[in-house]
Specification:
Layout (H helix, E strand, L loop, with lengths): L22 H6 L14 E7 L5 E7 L1 H5 L3 E6 H4 L27 E2 L5 E7 L2 H8 L3 E6 L6 H4 L15 E7 L7 H6 L3 E12 L8 E7 L4 E6 L4 H12 L6 E4 L15 H13 L3 E4 L2 H7 L3 E12 L5 E13 L9 H7 L9 E10 L13 H19 L3 H8 L8 E2 L5 E2 L4 H12 L1 H13 L3 E10 L16 E7 L5 E5 L8 H13 L6 E5 L16 H28 L6 E4 L2 E4 L2 E7 H10 L12 E6 L8 E10 L6 E11 L6 H20 L30 E5 L17 H17 L14 H14 L1
Parallel strand pairs: 1-12, 10-11, 14-15, 20-21, 27-28
Antiparallel strand pairs: 1-5, 2-4, 2-6, 3-5, 7-15, 8-13, 9-10, 9-12, 13-14, 16-17, 18-26, 19-20, 19-25, 22-23, 23-24, 26-27
Length: about 775
Amino acid sequence: MARTTTEKPKATAMGSRMKRAEDPRLITGSSTYVDDIKLAGMLYVTFVRSVHANANIVSVNTEAAKASAGVMEVLTGKDVSHLIGSVPCAAAIPGLKFPKQPVLAVDAVRFVGEPVVAIVASDRYAGRDAADLVEIEYEPLPAAVDVEAAMKPDSPKVHPQFENNIAFTFPFPQKGGGDIEKAFAGAHKIVTQRLVNQRLAPIAMECRAVAAQYNAGEESITLWSSTQIPHLMRTQVAIMLGVPENRVRVIAPEVGGGFGSKLNVYREEALLAYLARKLGRPVKWAETRRENIVGTIQGRAQVNEVEVAVKKDGTVLGLRCKLIADLGAYHQLLTPAIPTLTGLMLSGPYKIPAVRMDLVGVFTNKTATDAYRGAGRPEATYVVERMMDRVAQELGMDPVAVRRKNFVKPKEFPYATATGLSYDSGNYQKALDQALENAGYEKLRKEQARLRKQGRYLGIGLSSYVEICALGPSSAMPAGGWESATVRIAPTGKVTILSGASPHGQGEETSFMQIACDRLGVSPADVVVVHGDTALVQYGIGTFGSRATAVGGTAVWMCLEQIREKAKKFAAAMLKARPEQIVVKGAIYSVKGKPKAQTTFQNIALATYTAKILPKGETPGLEATAFFEPTNFTFPFGTHVAVVEVDGETGEIQCRRYVAVDDCGKVINPLLVDGQVQGGIAQAMGQALWEEVVYDENGQILTGSLMDYAIPRAAYLPRFETSRTETPTNVNPMGVKGVGEAGTIGCTPAIVNAVVDALSPFGVKHIEMPLRPEKVWRVIHQGRAIA
């Protein structure tokens, strides 16, 4: 998919607030999403999905559906279970129970929304009509819904072949972790708290969609999918279908948001590829919003029992956490791995000498959980930052003082955490100081005291976070942690970048263009960025974990450096000089000490293709491919401050101000950074205040549409006051760290801390999310009753 821009040239592109190259086509509606694809003879797929959370399938009668007008094919699980492999899971945890996940349920269903029958029809309407004619007889079974109850021996079993619902246990860290027993034995006080990260639905603006076409002459399949990982999907779909991978092409056209929910290989991709080959006609399926909420992965769903050992002065000696992860009914690509990321980040930005997490992954009769913006790290930051405020409460200290007391100091980097990580760089104190200054912290505390005398409840909440980004070294990743790029220079000097990353709203078409302009001195109008097509782009890993620029962008940088070095050799030959004498300034290549002896990058590009002058040992053309393997993760950080006022009569929460200071290393485009931070804050406010996927005791989803699942509206949010510090990393040559998940990670505890702070006159120490007015109202009235 080609991308172009019409931005005017700039002296230096990196660091400037250039508008996104992607935006004109998105704003004008001229871009192409999967559901925009229309091919001759295209058929449409409709799914009949389970209405039960746990049931045996007694019979499936599809005769009436097959006879319905416009229906071309009707498939059940028994038709395809021997032809299409199980949905893949890449996570590797010792002792992991792995239930097979068929593309269509065969003998039983394990969650509401599981696909049972696939109908192929001439249009969507015919498919929906036929779906109503399918008769499925179920034998309903008791469902395991509550994750803690599902752990008990007498709980209904999600998968009868296993003795219980515990999918795995994982003590963390496996090595090291400090002396946790000593830490707690020597504590002045042990602060405990139960903390729940509720289930969330990612709600990407574009629901998932898949189209597939089979070419009988080439025996090849082309699959269009709204995915974050086109190359990994190609590999996995080929394996599921048992076809050669080089006969499968995956294209990710425009993708309308993913937030981790499209970092997966789902049942529908393999099934539609199979149908296209079986029927010899192109097929398409586009998810409805209700299907999206029940059929696409969900996020968070963690229960934590946390203990923190502290000294009198607020020094944290140790943190111990029992984490129960609600996995849902099946493993998606990374389901079991997500809660392990929570364990990795339980040190936060603090010097905690001993950390222990006992993780239990539990099957329930619900939709699978997997990566959702932040993927385990927001959960960790919520645990750490809520506990820092709880420590301050118990010791009668200012929350700022507790954080300062425990911060890793700038001179202590690289810093080895008790969880086994090596933080690359940081200045946590600076980010905190700037946030407090921007918010006017001391004035806010005085205003808080004044308003309390008037019976008004102002709250100030802090969150100092560090996150793990630029995922990451291949040794720590299930499917490789490197990223690839190819840069091709045309004879006219035009630049084409082919990235193995697959951005879908983050803005890498713009940032990669800026890197090229900076290194080659070309105009933005000269640069095209191509991604998301496995037939055009060399193999790549994909976009997730705030890695596209820090890892994928570095691969682009490496290509550009190779091209500059080759261009210098050609320039030297053209100018009758030695390569080491060549000075590069933008697109001008000159001889040191002889400024008039010069040529341009465009002239050099042409010379590499005409090859009239060929430096010794060089080949014609100007092109480079690079694979960047990082030596470490990167660790962005920051401090967020939320200021809320709670209505004591109604429980309504007004977010008066939100101040964010983030540090993502060197910044290529401040406009992109601001956009990523603001979007992340909005999603995190959704979790803190409104959002929750709710199931009843039978496993029926009660929040199955946007009439019931509450996401934030623009009018609900304050103006975000964003700024940044800049602490480069040494993990990559650009010094960039990543920023796509920062707002989501930093915001949630800041909001909850602010609300709890506002309600401290009522003796409130904690409230579980989401902080809906009714819940807050009850807490206030309980506090008044006690008082």
